[in-house]
Structures are given as C-alpha cells and as structure tokens.
Amino acid sequence: MKNEVHTHHDESDHSHGSHHDHDNHQGHGHSHGLVDPSIVRSKAGVKAVSLSFAVLIITAIIQLFAYGKGNSVSLLTDLIHNAGDAMTALPLGIAFFLRNKKAERWSGYFVVLLILVSALIALYTVIERFINPFTPTNLWTIFIAGVIGFAGNELAAIIRTRAGKKLNSPALIADGKHAHTDGLVSLGVVVSVIFIALGFPIMDPIVGLIVSLMIIRITWQSWQTIRASE
C-alpha cells in the first residue's frame, strides 16, 4: 500500500519518501541496473540523472577519439567503464515514461548484458596486450583524455550530489559519491601515461586490467540490484 501512495504523490512529496530511500540503500549505495523510486517521482531527479548521463556519454565519446589516436588499452577500459556507467541511467527513462516496473526491470537486465559484454571486450583487449605488448603513442592525447575522464566524472558527481541534497535523496547522493570514485579511476590513465613516458609501458595493460575488473564488479552489482527487486 505504501508504494501505491507514493506513486500518486506529486513532486512536492518527494521528501516524504527519503526515509524509505535510506533504508533501501544502506547496504547498497549505488543503484546500478534500476532506478530508485524517489528519483523517478521527481522531475528534478530525472533531470539530474539525465544530465549526468549526457556528461558521461560525451566524456566516453571524446575518450574514444583519443583511443583511436594513441591505442592505449587503459584508456579503452576507462571509456568503456564511463559508457557502461552512463548506460545504467537508461532504465530511468523507461520507468519515468512508462511508469512500468516490469519494463524497467527488463531494461535493467538489458543494461547489465551490455555492461557484461563491454567488460568481456575490455578484458580480452587487456589480455591480448599482455601477450602482445605495444607501447601507446600520442601520450599527450591519452593524458588529456584521462584528465577529461576525471573532469567528466567530477561534473557528474556534482550534478548528482547537489540534486541529492536538494531533494533529500540518499540514492542520488550515493550516485554522486560513486561518480567521484570513478573520477579517481580515470586518473589511473594519467598515471599510466606518466609511467609509459618513463619507460614502463607495462603499466598500460596493468591499469586496464584493474579497470576491467571494476567493470565486472559493476555488472555483478547491477545483477544483484535487479534480482533483489523481484
């Protein structure tokens, strides 16, 4: 009965659902795969997630261009990570426009599948680079792409955190913290470039491996979130 009541409230009632959000996210900070109900109920919440989605997608596209110039596997895994994390916002559109929990769940499964495929591609590329070493080129381009990855995630973190505090939504605040952590991951690309410049190209696939494992972790978190909602 509580879910029905909250569903029919307008935007001004989003604060009343914050206590339930806190309970739902105590053991699971980041809502990969599905969208917290408090966010869907609020247009401001939808706007915040949509903006952060756009920021991360643009970041990934820029990094993809840089990858074509430098062929850095650590950069490739980071752009896959950023794109995969952005795709977790897709169920938001399903939930908001259709107001259909089943449709949201199935879209969440689709997102998990996409992230899993991207994780396997990233892992395969990293392993291949260990077997057939290659020193990335255009290091300045890769360096700048790593900085852009950091900046994109930080901007997404600011958007989510500000909206989360304004709406009193623990789910959005947790998403902001997650984006901040992802920004630190992007700095790993910058670190790998520095080591490559110093004569240690092995750091490129090592950083790529670490990020690949993080993508696999995202996949597992997403799967657990969706399964727990059934």
Structural write-up:
The chain has 230 residues and is mainly alpha-helical. The chain has one domain. The protein contains 10 helices and no strands. The protein has helices at 2-7, 18-25, 37-41, 43-70, 73-87, 90-98, 101-131, 139-167, 170-197, 203-228. Helix 5 packs antiparallel against helix 7, helix 5 (73-87) runs parallel beside helix 8 and helix 7 packs antiparallel against helix 10 (203-228). The longest helix is centred in the middle third of the chain and has 31 residues, at 101-131.
List its salient traits.
disordered N terminus; 10 helices; mainly alpha; 230 residues; 0% strand; 80% helix
State the gist of this model.
The chain is mainly alpha-helical and 230 residues long. It is 80% helix and 0% strand. The radius of gyration is 18 Å and the shape is globular.
Low-confidence stretches at least 5 residues in length (pLDDT < 50)?
A: 1-30
Structural class estimated from helices and strands: mainly alpha
Largest sheet: none
* Range of strand content: under 5%
SSE layout and pairing:
Layout: H1 2-7, H2 18-25, H3 37-41, H4 43-70, H5 73-87, H6 90-98, H7 101-131, H8 139-167, H9 170-197, H10 203-228
Helix pairs in contact: 4-5, 4-8, 5-7, 5-8, 5-9, 5-10, 6-7, 7-10, 8-9, 9-10
